[in-house]
């Protein structure tokens, strides 16, 4: 037993050491990666359910690492949230996103708005509004072209601070989306006080919906509540036709999900956008 125990720890140590080394490698190369434009903005189209028109997109970052290869955000975002680099990366993504919106406007595509992720650390940055306005002005866009996705858990963590920040951003004209709604603990009472424009339902909701029939009532209830609050609803993680028809029945406004499209690199997204602009 003693031998096995030792062996177990040896394996565990190796695993831990490898993870730490990998984290260190990521930390050592992140600044350089930003300068060398290794971070790419992918776009996942968002559709209006009513007419299935493309109305927007969510900007999602990817890292094309020279040694580690294609990296999805789960591989580096949590680390960047810990080491603080996320604020820098987010600003980069917002800038690249606005540059894209401007480019598409100039090329005559149907004007769309794009949602960007705003991490918890960004909310606590006193310069957030100034930074966003500076980017918007750099490209001559209306703030409403940029939707700011803030995760539900950030709202519950520090409601007072977030209400102040978000109220200000809305006054400036930005559109606020509450991301991952239903994943956390936002009480209905608090929801009513939240200055938001759009509720983005947590993916697990949609994926449970078809599996567990008793969750259907809850989803309908949330959508009715959103309507009462004059807030529109986006469902993400929609993978099947059944999920789409169900969401349509209960009055959900927009969808995003693999059923329509995965997050796409710029050129592929532009093919969809130009096809839609001809409709
Ligand atoms: P999120 O903001 O909740 O983004 C939605 C995630 O669901 C994306 O994962 C997207 O690719 C995935 N997804 C979309 N449709 C479907 C579907 O039909 N089925 C399934 N199973 N998944 C779907 P992704 O791109 O890997 O991003 C993961 C998370 O990383 C994001 O979750 C977001 O929290 C974070 N993230 C991504 N880009 C950024 C960024 O630029 N800044 C910050 N702060 N966070 C980011
Ligand atoms: Ca999001
Ligand atoms: Ca989400
Ligand atoms: Ca159209």
Automatic annotation (TrEMBL):
It comes from the Bacteria. Residues 23-277 form the EAL domain. This is Diguanylate cyclase (GGDEF)-like protein. The lineage of its organism: Bacteria, Bacillati, Bacillota, Erysipelotrichia, Erysipelotrichales.
């Amino acid at each position: 037993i003693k031998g096995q125990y030792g062996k177990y720890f040896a394996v565990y140590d190796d695993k831990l050491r490898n993870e730490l080394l990998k984290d260190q490698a990521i930390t050592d190369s992140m600044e350089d990666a930003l300068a060398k434009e290794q971070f790419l903005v992918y776009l996942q189209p968002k559709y209006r359910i009513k007419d299935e028109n493309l109305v927007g997109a969510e900007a999602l970052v990817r890292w094309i690492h020279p040694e580690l290869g294609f990296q999805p955000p789960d591989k580096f975002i949590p680390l960047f949230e810990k080491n603080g680099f996320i604020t820098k990366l987010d600003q980069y993504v917002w800038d690249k996103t606005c540059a894209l919106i401007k480019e598409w406007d100039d090329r005559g595509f149907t004007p769309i708005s794009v949602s960007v992720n705003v991490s918890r650390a960004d909310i606590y940055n006193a310069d957030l509004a100034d930074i966003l306005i500076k980017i918007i002005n750099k490209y001559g866009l209306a703030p409403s072209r940029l939707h700011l996705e803030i995760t539900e858990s950030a709202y519950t963590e520090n409601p007072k601070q977030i209400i102040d920040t978000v109220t200000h951003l809305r006054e400036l004209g930005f559109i606020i989306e509450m991301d991952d709604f239903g994943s956390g603990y936002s009480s209905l009472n608090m929801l009513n006080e939240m200055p938001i424009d759009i509720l983005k339902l947590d993916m697990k909701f949609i994926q449970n919906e078809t599996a567990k029939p008793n969750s259907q009532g809850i989803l309908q209830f949330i959508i009715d509540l959103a309507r009462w609050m004059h807030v529109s609803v986006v469902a993400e993680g929609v993978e099947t036709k059944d999920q789409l028809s169900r969401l349509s029945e209960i009055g959900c406004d927009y969808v995003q999900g693999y059923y329509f499209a995965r997050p796409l690199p710029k050129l592929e997204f532009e093919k969809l956008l130009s096809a839609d602009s001809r409709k």
